[in-house]
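Translate structure to sequence.
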């Protein structure tokens, strides 16, 4: 599972690639569960027919999804990845899935452990063309007992047992998983598609278009 990634910090790079103005605070450059980072979503008002509402918006949030019913935000330490095969039924993720609360997570790279040497070696995985990644995720809105509103998000993952690159990571006996890297041209469709089509986007990114460095 992916618990560590690099967020996109350069504001011009962010705006140019994702066609949205980044939030004033884009959070940490190195992101781990419970850290502040940004997410891109379709505004809740987008379906109201108001032409003044933008197609997408970027806002600050927490890495690690906090369901609306959670007692505190620390639950995000365990909910930073959601298995796409079960997200629709798992209590932590099902409301976000069923309500189409999909988001794009701007990332320059993510990290996975390479155990082929017998010990974990952190490996940085990025796009081979150097462009940012738009990772598929789910978002949620949580209100604390003190009345503060927190937006949070998680990454969606798929099986990678047969992926030419990602099958090399995690412990030998573990199932291989990978995050969903959206094709650049799929950003609008990912955010706007009907809930019934969500699984259509759960596709592996071509291994030849990724670069790994330890």
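Result:
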């Amino acid at each position: 599972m992916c618990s560590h990634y690099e967020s996109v910090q350069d504001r011009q790079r962010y705006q140019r690639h994702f066609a949205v103005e980044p939030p004033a605070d884009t959070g940490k450059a190195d992101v781990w569960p419970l850290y502040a980072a940004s997410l891109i979503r379709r505004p809740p008002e987008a379906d109201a027919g108001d032409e003044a509402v933008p197609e997408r918006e970027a806002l600050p949030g927490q890495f690690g999804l906090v369901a609306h019913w959670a007692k505190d935000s620390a639950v995000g330490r365990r909910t930073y990845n959601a298995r796409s095969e079960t997200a629709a039924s798992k209590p932590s993720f099902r409301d976000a899935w069923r309500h189409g609360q999909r988001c794009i997570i701007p990332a320059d790279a993510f990290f996975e452990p390479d155990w082929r040497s017998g010990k974990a070696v952190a490996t940085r995985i990025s796009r081979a063309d150097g462009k940012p990644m738009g990772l598929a995720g789910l978002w949620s809105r949580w209100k604390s007992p003190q009345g503060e509103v927190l937006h949070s998000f998680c990454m969606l993952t798929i099986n990678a047992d047969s992926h030419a690159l990602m099958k090399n990571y995690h412990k030998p006996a573990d199932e291989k998983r990978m995050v969903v890297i959206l094709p650049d041209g799929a950003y609008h469709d990912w955010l706007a598609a009907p809930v019934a089509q969500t699984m259509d986007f759960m596709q592996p990114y071509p291994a030849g278009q990724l670069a790994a460095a330890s």
